[in-house]
Amino acid sequence: MPATSALLEAAHQRGLAKALSYQGALLPREAYEVRQATSTAYIVDVRTQAEFNYVGRIPKSVEIEWQTYPGGVPNDAFLEQLQSQVEKDALVMFICRSGVRSHAAAQAAAAAGYRNVYNVLEGFQGDADANGHRDSVGGWRFAGLPWYKS
User: Fold this and answer.
1) Residue 30 φ/ψ, nearest 5 degrees
2) Cα 124 to the center of its chain, rounded Å
3) In whole angstroms, how far apart are CA 146 and each of 20, 56, 80?
4) Helix, strand, or coil here: 16?
5) Fewer CB within 10 Å of terminal CB in the chain, N or C?
6) Structure pTM?
7) pLDDT tens digit string along 116-145?
8) Rounded CA separation 17/62 (Å)
């Protein structure tokens, strides 16, 4: 677990530099390595059901919409759904498409008493490139990490 400790320390230092209200920020490969090495680590994917179905899923992730589709309406049951699936003392890594919704979800989880919360920078698809396309500038899929389409 020493390598995992180093990854989490680097994530914590990023969090301090960004003045995050939660533990830290991981890059996609780091999040994958932490989950592989830590039996009590969860990746919580907060994208919409449409994104899960049409863009792809992360194996063994917990899927809880931060906003619903269509319309981007906030999921008022988000924390309740999180608490029913993930213990508050677990290591929780939130991911979305590009890292924005997951940042908000991480803030909400930390405010609700989760103590070991991280955001996955770059998200599942990364930022859009100069042509407006995703999956070419960072992200889980760009890093070649496991995913599948249902």
Assistant:
1) -65, -45
2) 8
3) 28, 10, 28
4) helix
5) C
6) 0.96
7) 999 999 999 999 999 999 999 999 999 999
8) 28
